[in-house]
Write a structure and sequence with these properties.
The protein is α+β, with helices and mostly antiparallel strands and about 375 residues long. It is built from twelve helices and 17 strands. Helix 1 packs across helix 10 and helix 3 packs antiparallel against helix 4. The longest helix has 18 residues. The model has no long low-confidence stretch (mean pLDDT about 95). The structure holds adenosine-5'-triphosphate (ATP) and magnesium ion (MG). Adenosine-5'-triphosphate binds next to strand 6, strand 9 and strand 14.
Length: about 375
Amino acid sequence: MILPGATLGLLGGGQLGRYFAAAARTAGYGVWVLDPDPQAPAAAFATRHLCAAYDDADALALLGTHCAAITTEFENAPASALAALADQYQLPVRPAAAAVAIAQDRIREKQFFRDCGLPVGPYGVIADAAGIPAALTQVAYPAIIKTARFGYDGKGQVRVAGPTEAQAVLAAQPDLMPCVIEQLLPLAQELSVVLGRGVNGSVQCFPVAQNHHRHGILDVSIAPAEIAESLAQQVCSWASRVANTLEYVGVLGVEFFVLTDGSLLLNEMAPRPHNSGHYTIDAGACSQFEQQLRLVCGFPPLDPAPAANAVMVNLLGDQWHAGTPDWASLLQHPRARLHLYGKREARPGRKMGHFTLVGPDRQSLLEEAEQLRRTLGMSASD
Ligand SMILES: Nc1ncnc2c1ncn2[C@@H]1O[C@H](COP(=O)(O)OP(=O)(O)OP(=O)(O)O)[C@@H](O)[C@H]1O
Ligand SMILES: [Mg+2]
């Protein structure tokens, strides 16, 4: 077990890393962050920022010799770097490279879910050009082509009306990257759960969140989701099965689809804290980042006591089009908590921060969230 005073190594310095570093520093740990961006949001909370590529041998050697354990906040951190830190420097790497490698690759991830005996929507695998014709027959249309790797916030995804368009989209890629084609599913709801699994194998799930996306990016999360207890239990039990099968250590986010016929499917997982778990910072007994800290340090997960009702609204760079949004109005609200990630450049679609409303009555929180969106000049949620 790794005690306060030790230094932890973190691959990735985005907003998730910023919260992790804040939780670790609060609890008396040091944090060294590896991120090539000189303005990485986590750097402000880190004891040291190694500004280098994720596979930079010198930077990995520094982490390897100064840190007591390694974690990641960024699912595209090279699994090879995590493996090197575990093998060459004999450090606990949580989650392990093998689990991260599965979650990084949609083809491996979907197969893994199936191997766990869990359902995913119809899809075809396009590993190379020769695999295109067979893959296009695996789904009904419309469908979505997604790159197997490096996608996030809906990036690397193209919707296609039929196999002819799918063929054209794929043929237009000079270097065809491995992809999946997924049938566009009739979604009734999107749910997610964030869980923590300890080295001792014990699992604790945070309350299930209900998510609304806009243009493929998470817009609003509502927690706890207003769903039947049996459905919430199924979500937690399937996510736990995934974590147990992976022998996962750390915080894991698992995304689900509920279809209009009521069936539940897995969408994808993230080997790290998750945007839909941000409500835990303000609305629970422990945040997903404190949980990650405990697990990385080898302690069992905290029991996240039931959360108060929470509505979290993401703030994207689009909101900065007319200058800094009207924080004064937001902050006058007695239940609104503003989070900003310290990113200097507000690009469209870039996650800049979020606000959370916490209170006893879900319906009034939703109405207040809509009111605050209007105050900030945001469009109404879908
Ligand atoms: N097969 C599908 N059928 C219907 N909607 C889908 C499908 N795949 C994706 N979507 C919609 O697009 C959103 C983003 O898709 P997905 O989770 O695969 O992307 P991502 O780029 O990994 O996003 P993130 O990392 O933000 O979760 C989903 O949450 C859902 O709203
Ligand atoms: Mg997703």
